[in-house]
Design a protein that fits this description.
The structure is a homodimer.
Chain A lengths: L1 H10 L18 H26 L7 H15 L16 E3 L2 H4 L1 H15 L2 H4 L3 H22 E6 L1
Antiparallel strand pairs in A: 1-2
Helix pairs in contact in A: 2-3, 2-7, 5-7
Chain lengths: ~160, ~160
């Protein structure tokens, strides 16, 4: 898994939406990696927002949509780890706290806690009662990590 | 499919990464929808960049990583359509061309062309020779739509 993360980080090239067919072998710029990190977290947040709204009864439960969102969240949750790696603490405005880089082992443990909870989502999403419990656990893991490692305002 | 898109757009709430456990039922702000659209397209672009680099031999082919990326791209490709809907042509800096909103039927056809090509990716990604052909087709569909509907610079 770790190797795949590294491979993804190495391979993910600084392609822009403007030139989808232009690829380069060089390492992506920190600003592109930070933007990628933010994109992944944004999609996770939006998709989980939908699941949590279903779990809370704020929107109607839709099994197909819930299972799809859960699978997407699980896949996305495996991507950000290398994007919090060395040198990616600055280069673009970010809310990622400097503690991520000063206590990487603790941060890694918090990320893995989140990933562990998220792994349960796809199986849970097919049943509303189970989703309620699991979404609560995932939400706590998200919040715990954000409380500890996310700044209130952009820095850099 | 269309209903699910609408449901996703309605459900996707204006949660921020800061407050992952706070959700609201109100429609998301245009600026949040535009940011969400950009996040999805960015993740698609990065993941497809990796696949295309494998297809071109610029990075080593890794079957597991390729299949994972292809599945992720396929799922993400189903999300942006409602994010190009009415009222989302402005509200934040965007490269999305105004033609998207002045000729929505043509744009919809271009999006569906892309989705049709992307649907073939997961099955193709497990074999490098097949991936080369399919990634080429997907790349052309991406480029065609970007050429016609994406501005070179941010507007708004």
């Amino acid at each position: 898994m770790k190797l795949r993360h590294i491979a993804l980080a190495m391979c993910a090239v600084a392609t822009t939406a403007t030139s989808a067919t232009t690829y380069a072998q060089q390492a992506p710029k920190p600003e592109d990696q930070i933007r990628y990190r933010q994109s992944i977290m944004n999609v996770i947040g939006r998709q989980f927002g939908m699941l949590a709204a279903m779990a809370k009864g704020e929107v109607p439960y839709n099994k197909d949509a819930a299972v799809k969102a859960a699978g997407l969240i699980e896949t996305l949750s495996t991507l950000p780890a290398p994007l919090f790696g060395p040198g990616l603490d600055k280069g673009a405005p970010t809310k990622a706290g400097t503690k991520i880089w000063s206590e990487p082992d603790k941060f890694k443990a918090a990320l893995e806690k989140m990933q562990g909870e998220v792994k349960k989502l796809p199986a849970a999403a097919g049943d509303l009662a189970t989703l309620k419990v699991t979404a609560g656990d995932v939400g706590k893991a998200c919040k715990g990590c954000h409380d500890d490692y996310q700044e209130k305002e952009f820095r850099n």
